[in-house]
Design brief:
five-stranded mixed β-sheet, metal-binding, binds fe (iii) ion, tRNA N(6)-L-threonylcarbamoyladenine synthase activity, EC 2.3.1.234, alpha/beta, binds adenosine-5'-triphosphate, acyltransferase
């Protein structure tokens, strides 16, 4: 079974080919064309610019994905596309492109929830069996999910305001570092002293695994302003220490809330326990190490996909498409693009066609 995957829900245009047979699935190609330079001047992703860029880049990405896999559309068995959630212009561009290819080549079409793509990635990379506990932590999302099946997710808790990726990006912006902020803050933090600034760990005293990150961002802003007032600017060590302090606070919150989510998960699901992470922030080495330790303490298998499969990509969409196709979840030309689409709701086709 060979699927083409298409992803365009944020600021990466991506296409990939994944093949799954009896053995481990294979990623035959994984093309990601970022738009960082297009949005750099605006300090954030501009939806209108993103949508236009997706429209321009999608065809080429698909052709490159096929080329690199050494295939033509005749070798492909289906087209999977992110149908939401995300910036609606970009999602629409991807869905239109996928519909065109599916109709033109007479292939089945499968709409995929972007978050399900992230959440099912550990099955692509490590063949993880259901059920497992997943921490999905990215630019726009932060939640603990009990993954029970291809289309069965239970949300155990999550952020009540910002996502950590957003907090990383805003912290970078406050410290005049380039976007995307996550990798930049991580690089600065490497030489910083995490103990110099004690930043808040919000909601630690509240039971359950809900989280909050907006206060952390404000604390970075206040600390920065105090430093500037005191020294007339930010010195190198101020920046690296603040990055390290911020990263440590995020890691602490995620680790403590993971402990609680694991306890909830073990109570709900006595099957072979595993804890997996996905999403762009899972690329962070300090955060990964903290989560790995929490899993080890609880005696759980820990699975973290390789970095390029943690951030947005189309291989995860192709894979989720294969998973859905295998259990008969396909879509038709009524597939709708959805700006919002919580994971514990149901298939796109069912809502898109009003059934
Ligand atoms: P979503 O998947 O929620 O729609 P997204 O598509 O923006 O959001 P991803 O591509 O999964 O998210 O992740 C991007 C986010 O991950 C950005 O906020 C980025 O700063 C963050 N990120 C990437 N690498 C790192 C890192 N090394 N450390 C911390 N954060 C990181
Ligand atoms: Fe994402």
């Amino acid at each position: 079974l060979t699927f083409l995957g298409i992803e365009s829900s944020c600021d990466d245009t991506a296409a990939a080919i994944v093949r799954a047979g009896r053995g481990a699935p294979e990623i035959l190609s994984n093309v990601v064309d970022g738009q960082v330079d297009l949005h750099a001047a605006f300090g954030g992703v501009v939806p209108e610019i993103a949508a236009r860029a997706h429209t321009e880049k999608l065809d080429l990405c698909v052709m490159q994905a096929l080329d690199q896999a050494g295939l033509t559309l005749r070798d492909v068995d289906g087209v999977a596309v992110t149908a939401g959630p995300g910036l609606i212009g970009g999602v629409l561009a991807g869905v239109m492109c996928a519909k065109g290819i599916a109709a033109g080549a007479g292939l089945p079409l499968v709409g995929v929830n972007h978050l399900a793509g992230h959440a099912l990635t550990p099955r692509l990379t490590d063949g993880l069996a259901f059920p497992y506990l997943m921490l999905l932590v990215s630019g726009g999302h932060c939640q603990f999910l009990l993954v029970r099946g291809v289309d069965e997710f239970t949300r155990l808790g999550g952020t009540i305001d910002d996502a950590p990726g957003e907090a990383f990006d805003k912290t970078a912006k406050l410290l005049a570092l380039p976007q995307p902020g996550g990798p930049m803050v991580e690089r600065e933090a490497r030489t910083g002293d995490a103990g110099r600034f004690r930043l808040p760990r919000p909601l630690m005293d509240r039971p359950g695994c809900d989280m909050s990150f907006s206060g952390l961002k404000t604390a970075v802003l206040r600390t920065r302003d105090a430093l500037i007032a005191e020294h007339g600017g930010l010195r190198v060590a101020d920046r690296t220490d603040l990055c390290a302090g911020f990263q440590a606070a995020v890691a602490d919150v995620l680790a403590e809330k993971s402990r609680r989510a694991i306890a909830q998960y073990l109570a709900l699901s006595p099957a072979v326990p595993a804890f997996a992470v996905a999403g762009g922030v899972a690329a962070n080495q300090t955060i990964r190490a903290a989560l790995e330790q929490v899993a080890a303490e609880a005696g759980l298998r820990f699975v973290a996909p390789p970095l390029r499969l943690c951030t947005d990509n189309a291989a995860m969409i192709a894979w989720a498409g294969i998973e859905r196709f295998r259990i008969g979840l396909t879509d038709d030309m009524t597939l709708a693009a959805r700006p919002r689409w919580p994971l514990d709701q149901t298939s796109p086709g069912m809502l898109g066609s009003g059934k």
